[in-house]
Each structure stands twice: as C-alpha cells, then as structure tokens.
Amino acid sequence: MSKQNPQLDAQGNLKHFLTTEGLSRDLLTDILDQAEGFLGVAQQAVKKVPLCRGKVIANLFFETSTRTRTTFELAAKRLSADVLNLNISTSATAKGETLLDTLRNLEAMHVDMFVVRHATSGAAHFIAAHADPHVSVINAGDGRHAHPTQAMLDMFTIRRHKQDFSRLRVAIVGDIMHSRVARSQILALKTLGVPEVRVIAPSTLMPNGIEEAFGVRAYHDLREGVRDVDVIIMLRIQHERMNSSLLPSEHEYFRLFGLTEERLSTAQPDAIVMHPGPINRGVEMDSQVADGPRSVILEQVSNGIAVRMAVMSMCIGTQNLKSQPQGDVDG
Amino acid sequence: MANGPRISIRNGRLIDPASGLDGEADLHIADGKVLAIGPAPSGFQPDRTLDARDQLICPGFVDLCARLREPGHEHKATIASETRAAAASGVTTICCPPDTLPVIDTPAVAQLVSQTAERHGFARVVPAGAVTQGLKGAKITEMAALKQAGCPVLSQADSPIRDTQVQRRAMEYATTFGLTVFLHPQDAALSEEGCAHEGLVSTRLGLPGIPEAAETVAVARDLALAEQTGARIHFRGLSTARGVAMLAEARRRGIQVTADVSMHQLFLTEDDLECFDANCHLIPPLRTHADREALRTAVASGVISAICSDHQPHDADAKLAPFPETAPGISALETLLPLALRLADEGVMDLATLIERLTHGPATILGRALGRIAPGAPADICVFDPETTWVVNPATLISHGLHTPFNEQEMRGRVSWTLLGGRIVFER
Q: Aspartate/ornithine carbamoyltransferase Asp/Orn-binding domain location, by residue (chain A) (predicted)?
C-alpha cells in the first residue's frame, strides 16, 4: 500500500473512511457540517433522501454488533441505498473462507460500499487496499485500531454542546488499551484543535507510551483526571477483562474508576458525560449519572445516524465524481 | 566434491578477514579446494578463468538461519528453489531451523534435508536439530543421534520452551555432546498474540505488542541457565539494545554465549509498520531507532558476531490478510549482500568487518571450518560486483518467497559467480 493517505483520492476527496488519523481539520469539520444537515431528515414525514439511490451498501460484520450495525443500516436506507447485512462471524469464516474470498464474492454482486467491522487491527486498511478501485470502505471498528464513525458522532455531539473545540478539556476514562474508540476520538479531538486531552485508567489498561504517541496526558486517579474538564467520555469495559491479570474485580474497578455524581463534582459545572454504549451500569458509571442531566448518551445514538449518513454520502459522492467522464481533466 | 574443475579467478580484489587478506590477488582452485592465492603454481592449467576485474572475491556467505520449507511446506518453497536462490546470493552454507513438517527431531529428517540439498548441489545445508521432540518444549530429542546425523547445533526455532526446568535439562544434555543450543530469546507468555514492538507505533495502530521485556526476560533466564549448566548457547536474532547490553556483559564474565542479528533489523524500525505493511510483520518485531543503532554498534564491535538473512519464504496467501493475521517473515537471501554493502556505505563498519560477520563469524558459531579462503580450505567463494545496481521486485527474485519490505528499492551490489566446493553453482 502506498505511503500516501489511503483514505483520499488523488484530489483529496474522502474515498474510504478508515481512521481519523491523517485527515485535515477542514475535512473532519466538513463531515460534522454535513451531518448537521442530515439531522433534519429524521424529523421529516418521509425519512429519506436520494443521495445513494441505486447504490449497494454491504454491512460486513465479522464481529457481532447490534447498535452500530443498526445505525449504519438505517443511515444507508435513509440515503435510499440498497443494503445487504452480512454477519460473517457465523457463516463464511467458519467454513474456512478467507477474508479476501468473502470480499471477492461480494464484489461480484456489484457492491459499491463495504461497511466493515472486524476483530483484527488493520482489517479495514487491508480490505480497502484489496477491494476493487471503485468500491469505498468504511471502517465500523477494526480490532483495537480505529472506529472513526463513532469518534465523529462523538465530536458531533460535543460540538452541539460546546461549540468551540479550541477551549475544551476532554477526559477519556476506561480501557484505553483495547479501545479503538479511544484511539479514534483522541486523533479527532487533536485534529479539531482540543488543547487538552486526558486519558484515565489503571496502568494495565493504559497502552505503552500513550502520552508520546498521541500527545495526551495520562492519569491514574479519576478525581484528579476529571478536574475542570468539559467533556467526560466513559469507555466500555469488557467483562472478560475482569478477574484476569488486567483487573481484579468489577467492585474495585467501580470503586476507583466508576463515575458517580460525587466524582463528577470536580469537573466543570456544565460538563457533559458520554459513553459509546452499551453501558455496564455499576461498573463504568452508576445509573444516576447515566440517566442524569449531564448525560448525552442517547443523543449520541441519534447523532450516529446523521454522522454515518454524512460519511457514506461523501464517499459515494467521491465515487460519482470519478464516474463522470470529464470530471477531472488532469486525472 | 573432489576432482572438480580447475579454476582461476583473476584480477579481483580478494577480501578474507579471517586470513587477513585484502588486496588484489588471483585465486586458484582445484579438486574442490583452494590451491593457491596469488601467482598460479607452476604448471597449473585452469579449465576456466574468471575475469574478476573491478569485482570483489570473498568466502561464500554462511547463513545461520534460512528456511527452506522442505519437508512439509513445499507450497511455500523447496530445498531446490531456496538453495538456488542462496547460490545467486553468494550464500554457500545455510543452517536451517528444525520447524519443518515433520520437525527435524530425528536423524531421518535431518538426513533427508541434507541429502536433498546435496543432490541439488547449490549450497551446503546444515540442519539444526530440534531441542525438544516436535518442538513442543516438553521432551528432549535424541541429541547424540542428531549430531551423528549431521546437526552441529540444536534449535527450538520460534517456539520458546516455557518450562524452565526443561530448558535447563535440554542445555545440560546438549553439553554432553558439545552441541551449541540456538535460542530465539522471546518469553512465550510476554509475546503471546503480539505482532509488533510494544511502543509508540503499536499503541497508535492498536496492534497487540511484544514488549522489550519479552526478549530481556528470556535473555536473562537463558544466560543464568548457561552459567549454571556450562552450556554453549547462541542467541538467534537479537532485537533490543538492552538484550545486546546483557549479552556483552555476559561475554565479559566468560559465559559461553554468542549472538546474531537478522539483516533487516539493522535497517527497519517500528516506524515501517505504518499502513499495516504485512512485509514488515517480523518476529522478533522491528523495534525502535535506538535499538537499531545498538544492534549496528554491536555488530561492528563483534559483540554480535554474525548477521543472518532470516530468510522465510511464504506463499502469497500467507501475507494476504489483516496485519496481525499474516505470517511473519520475509524473503531475505537475495537482499543480504546489497544490504551489507549499504551498511558499509553508511559507515556503520568497514567492508572487511561486514564480510567477517557473514562468513567466518557464523562459521565459527556452527563449528565448521568454513568461511575463509586459505590453501586447502573448501573453495566456497563469492565473487561480486559492488557497483552494479538493480531494483528489487518479485520478477527479479529467484526465491519462491516474494515478500520483502525492500520491494521497489534500488540495491547496489550483485553476485557474479558463486563457487561451492570448487564448482561454479551460479553465474550471471
């Protein structure tokens, strides 16, 4: 794969959306602005726009997911695309079919866009590198690497509440080590100009060299970490991390890193609390916070559809530019 | 290989650090052996004269680690295909690790490998016998029988022994027969599921990491066991600066330990993993710039006394997957010489030292009287043009392994002739 950004076409338009890394502030802002426009679609009597009419979008989920897949599906349908949903974890790979075989078979059905979730870091880059050149790939989560649409819907939610990114302090709390969401959020926050991003976790869940790798500040104390912050993003902790060599128990985790009203008190009075879902109540946060006035968790879900519509229509738009015969003279 | 042709190699610059030679000298070969250096003995009538004007003549390279994939993985490569690639690369002796299928843990498999190689006749192949049966890390092999079958060293390939007691006893048993044990220093638990150096790049890309401590913990354990047992050990493929420092310290204290490094470790770093390039999926992983510099210094000073290709040919499918799911390893025989010359160019060490690390250094570790040009020694010779340039791409490679991180790069230096036991086994 070439060292130039594999997400952009030669003119710098978004062709794939694989990671929030390496994209300009203008491009990320453009995604947010376009999502703003799509927010109204849900309020219309007919919740559809024709931007992807005649296009086939395949949701390729090698890892099970309800929420993300559903919002991608809804986003595609609101753009008038035909949608294929494939849960591969239970079918092809069990029969020994390789990722590339699966891809080729779907390409033969003239799919225009793959929305991919896969348990392995780098899977979306791999598919983008090997897919037919006219196909776009959207990363719906690859291993620990990236989950860029989740990050952008979080940026969208933050902007609706806080407007100016350049004056914000943002704290991300939880399993930073295994979190593709955290990585994509940090990169998006930095690109959008957030001056202070903090990550809060016990050392076992904090990846090596995080401060230098991402330009963030690492905290091991929740109270100290959320002091004066404007946004708190809680991450989901997988059950299998508990009672392992990473964490001793849910009880101890909640006691030290669980968000409660009391621990929120050091944050800015108008701080918002976010979570990519699904929440483990009583592990990552208590119900008072999850359902409280500062929680914007459900808003995140509705915003997710608008942001995914924006990203999908932009990538399809880039394809359409290409297919117009005299679209670019110097090609 | 007796009664080979009589050959004179004229007008070249002969470099053999082990014999202290560096200068223009003719080389005369007969009966598979070096007959004379300098003027031809009176009455010597060569069957063939090679004109090596503007070329360098050195001992054929001795590679302590190259996979040939036979028996068992012939869909990747064969002894014939890879020894042919070796000949084209100036490599005349290959030590192949025992991770074939079946494993080289019995005399029969060891003999199968060396006899097949002999039949094709492109390179000397020295099989490393397995330390444990099936490389499973539990029961030791019949080491005496393996030695008798032609295995001068033992190895666990990439499967470290988890049980320290087994490791200790394997080392002790090996000392009974004076066998050197090759160890890939990588702690099994600390490296489990890892595919990249645990550091800035793995953190950014979300790749499961292999920490530096995976190497240093294993180095510490194995050095302690070598000291305890008196075993002679060799670290195959060091990758960290701290591992190198521990090695240097152990050597000062008189522990019988040597080490080598894979050529690519002297060039690439974790930064090359950007964009999930599967050609940079290597074990041990590519580490930091500081590690690379320490490895370079250690090779120059002789703390690390050999450079290997660590050649691992793969079929196309092995690399067609998301990065962590690809098979580690690259095709590396044919870039060995040009990369060595690049090290000399970059001033890391002089050419003579480099050639020593590719010839006499590794030959000494194998305990074989190879890797030098001296009257009476086997005529394993590499003649190369240090100025010819060529571009690496799958079409230029002879090996069946076509994956290399140096793809599309221009290389300087190309083999013109390779002689094995006095016979020309490659000429361009």
A: 168-314
pLDDT digits (tens, 9 = 90+) for A149-191: 999 999 999 999 998 999 999 999 999 999 999 999 999 999 9
CA distance A248 to A202: 11
> pLDDT category, A91, cuts 50, 70, 90?
low
Tell me how close the Cα of A126 comes to any Cα of chain B, in angstroms: 5
Is A277 known as a binding-site position? yes
A207 burial level (CB within 10 Å; 0-12, 13-18, 19+): buried
Match 């041990």 to its residue by tokens.
B284
Q: Which residues does chain B have within 8 Å of residue A21's beta carbon, measured at their own beta carbons? A: 204
Handedness of CA B53, B55, B61, B66 (dihedral sign): negative
Taking residues B196-215, report their average pLDDT: 97
**Residues of chain B with C-beta less than 8 angstroms from the C-beta of A210:** 203
Would you say domain B60-366 falls under CATH 3.30.70.420?
no
Taking only the tens place, the pLDDT of each residue in B172-191 is 999 999 999 999 999 999 99
Residue A326 — pLDDT band, cuts 50, 70, 90? Answer: very low
Helix (H) or strand (E) holding A160: helix A148-162
The residues of B assigned a catalytic role are 310
Whether A331 shows a pLDDT value over 70: the answer reads no
pLDDT at A308 (0 to 100) = 97
Chain B nearest CA to A276, separation (Å): 18
At the second CATH level, the architecture of B7-57+377-427 is Roll (2.30)
Residue in B295, B413, B306 with CA at minimum distance from that of residue B360: B306
Q: Which residues of A touch B (CB under 8 A)?
A: 1-3, 6, 21, 98-100, 118, 120-123, 125-126, 130, 142-146, 180, 183, 207-210, 212-214
Give the one of B206, B209, B211 whose C-beta lies nearest to A145's C-beta. Answer: B206
Identity at B166, one-letter amino acid code: V
Which residue from B minimizes the CA distance to A144?
B206
CATH architecture of the domain formed by A25-147+302-323 = 3-Layer(aba) Sandwich (3.40)
ipTM of the complex as predicted? 0.91
Give the pLDDT of residue A328. Answer: 45
